[in-house]
Design goal:
The structure is a homotetramer. By secondary structure, chain A is mainly α. Helices cover 53% and strands 7% of the residues of chain A. The first copy, chain A, folds into two domains: 13-76, Arc Repressor Mutant, subunit A; 85-125. In chain A, strands 1-3-2 form a three-stranded antiparallel beta sheet. In chain A, a hairpin with a 3-residue loop joins strand 2 and strand 3. Chains A and B meet through helix 1, helix 4 and helix 5 of A and helix 1, helix 4 and helix 5 of B. The structure holds a DNA duplex.
Chain lengths: 137, 137, 137, 137
DNA sequence: GTGGTCTAGACCACA
DNA sequence: GTGGTCTAGACCACA
């Protein structure tokens, strides 16, 4: 089974697919240019309505993560480089926002903020491939 | 206006309220024991149906964040419990999960992971009050 | 403080008073004929609205547990003997209903029914005074 | 009629539904995995507003008794968790509390405590299925 | 088809 | 005054 989806989860199935595919790409488990299963394949594989797969793929395409080439299939885009300037600013704002949420949640379950920081370091240290990007400092 | 809600957002209004109130408490902007506006007050303030406010308050009460005192009003709880035992494990797993999401998202918008880490440090440094909790190291 | 009431509890304060007073009588901590504090005394003692006390006392009087004697005060009734016949049947039905609830709850939290039974035996064994009533067998 | 609800009862209708459904599951009358009627079905069946049914279902889901599968319907959960750790302790305390209430009530209606005990034995003996749980002795 | 969100408004219980 | 329950009905997201 190419993908593992939990139909009982509260996050919609199409969203789970989006998250999982983006995660694989980010971790290098899905290389740029590589081909994704067709909607039909995946639908019968997961025993899920094809419309659900289609919705996930459409959203991924809209985000510029994958691209559909008529008659050939669906592929991971070469590079998703965050654009500079205004777009970058909003992207950073979004990341900051997500981090704030993590801290708020940590507070309410009684986890010290320092532990959150340490946890992040561990995750980054174990991250598969961070191919020579430069910090924008 | 006590709270700012975006009725056009895709996240439900009641969820926005929950998030915002938890954030304020976590940041110390809403002190323990302090009183929240009554459902009717907030409803007329935000021009939102009272049922929507009630739903948010009920969920916050269920989470142990606020408490209702009959006929008197709604108040921020004294203390959010420290993480202990099985609860702590799942809470930490959740935090790790949220952090992973942040890293995945950062990758896709082209933000170096080191920048995410730095951003987190900045947020923690500016966090209003972290009253002497101990890391569990 | 004669009585301990939790204003934060989800069970109404007047109901807590009813439960507690009935429990004390059942356990012999409040003897028949003994005098209860006046509404005013209790209200100022607990810093609670007198109307709330009055409501509890009224309900207890309606149930035949206490009696108000004009100008003298409020007293625990001599004996609350369950009447025979039809009343007894409905009383037994109520008890059976409560026991069923306990078993349902026990099931859902994963407590074996045998443990519930054992727990009940322990409670009965430690019951202060069961003055020679006869089982109706 | 799948469910019997008393709209004149002082216990809210949604609470009656919760109690009844949990009771059926505990007695094995509603098997794990089995499907509950849809909100709309049940609403028109009972001539009750769908929102009221939804509230009951949501609470049951929160308690981990049933689960919603998107677009498919609502189902009884596979297994109710066994009581372990801190949860177990508070669960047992709650059961003890409920039993105490029963004894207090029995006293006041004149039912000997021994009869309560016997009644419980009868209920347990007639309990549909108690599939090999172990007492924690 | 399924459940989730929200409104406008009535009525009730509690303090 | 406070919050809780319920209705009738609209509209939306998901599968």
């Amino acid at each position: 089974m190419w993908l593992r989806i939990d139909s009982r989860s509260s996050t919609p199935m199409y969203q789970q697919m989006i998250d999982e595919i983006k995660a694989r790409i980010a971790k290098g488990a899905l290389a740029p240019q590589s081909r994704l299963p067709s909607i039909r394949e995946l639908a019968s594989d997961l025993m899920i309505n094809p419309n659900t797969i289609a919705k996930a793929y459409q959203e991924l395409e809209r985000e510029g993560v994958i691209e559909v080439i008529r008659g050939r299939g669906t592929f991971v885009c070469r590079e998703q480089e965050g654009a500079g300037g205004a777009v970058a600013a909003s992207a950073r704002a979004q990341v900051r926002d997500m981090l704030t949420r993590v801290l708020v949640e940590a507070h309410h379950v009684g986890i010290p903020l320092a532990d959150v920081s340490r946890e992040l370091e561990v995750l980054i240290a174990g991250w598969p491939e961070e191919r020579g990007r430069y910090s924008d400092e």
